[in-house]
Amino acid sequence: MPHYEWTAAVVSQGDGCVICHGAPGRRLIHHTKGRVFIADTWSVEFYSFSEWFTVSVDVDVDGVLQRYCNIAEPARLDGDVLSFVDLDLDLVWRRGSGWQVVDEDEFAVNAARFTYPPPLVAAARTALEGLRARVEGKGFPFDGTLDRWVRHLAGGGTAGG
After folding, report:
1. Is the peptide bond before 118 cis (omega within 30 degrees of 0)?
2. Distance between CA 130 and CA 96 in Å, rounded?
3. Which helix (H) or strand (E) holds 128?
4. What confidence score (pLDDT) does residue 93 get?
5. Alpha-carbon dihedral of residues 126, 127, 128, 134, nearest 10 degrees?
6. Interatomic CA distance for residues 27 and 25, integer angstroms
7. Which pLDDT tens digit goes with each residue over 31-44?
C-alpha cells in the first residue's frame, strides 16, 4: 500500500528524470495517517530514475515557499504511475531560512521498525551528503533548471536553456 499519493502533470521527461507540475487544490491522500490534505500551493517536482532524491518546489502567490527534497530510492515509472520509496530523511529550504536536514528522528525510528539493512541506511546517508554537495555546488537540478520551470509555469517565459 502506498504511504501517500497525489496527481501531477508531467511537463518534461527525458535524461533520466521526470519533471511534473502539481496544480493548486490537488489532493494529497496520506494513507498512513488516514487523512486527505488539499494543497493551496502549486509545485514543480523533480524525480530521477537514477539519483536517490526527489525535489518539490512549492510556490505560493509570493514566489517559492520551500524546496523540499526527499531522500528516496530512485523513482520508477509504470504506465502513468510514478513511484518512489521515501526513506524519511529530508533536506529542506524554506523561505526566510536556509537549508536544513529534517526528519532524522523519523529515519532512525523507521530504520529500526522496518529493519532497514545496513547497506540501505548507508546509501540513504550517502545520498543525503551527496544531495547537500549538489545543492551547494549548484548541480543539476539546482543549477536553475527548476527555477526556469517555476517561471515558465507561472507564465514568465520558457523552461528550456
Report:
1. no
2. 24
3. helix 118-136
4. 97
5. 110
6. 6
7. 888 899 999 999 99
Cα–Cα distance measured from residue 23 to residue 43, given in angstroms and rounded to the nearest whole number? 7
Three-class SS of residue 146? helix
Decide: residue 157, CB within 10 A, 0-12 exposed, 13-18 middle, 19+ buried.
exposed
51: pLDDT strictly greater than 90: yes
Type of residue found at 127 = A
The maximal CA–CA distance of the chain, rounded, in angstroms, is 47
Residue predicted with more confidence, 157 or 151: 151
* 32 Cβ contact partners less than 8 Å away, ≥ 6 residues apart: 3, 4
Considering the entire predicted model, what is its pTM? 0.91
> CA-CA distance, 145 to 130, in Å (whole number)?
18
For cell 493548486, the residue is: 24
Domains of the chain: 4-153 (2.40.380.10)
Residue 144: strand pairing partners? none
**DSSP code at position 151:** H
In three-state secondary structure terms, 94 is: strand
Which position has the grid cell 494543497?
A: 39
Q: Give the burial string for 42-53 (b: 16+ CB within 10 Å, else e).
A: bbbbbbbeebbb
Say if CB 18 and CB 99 are below 8 A apart: no
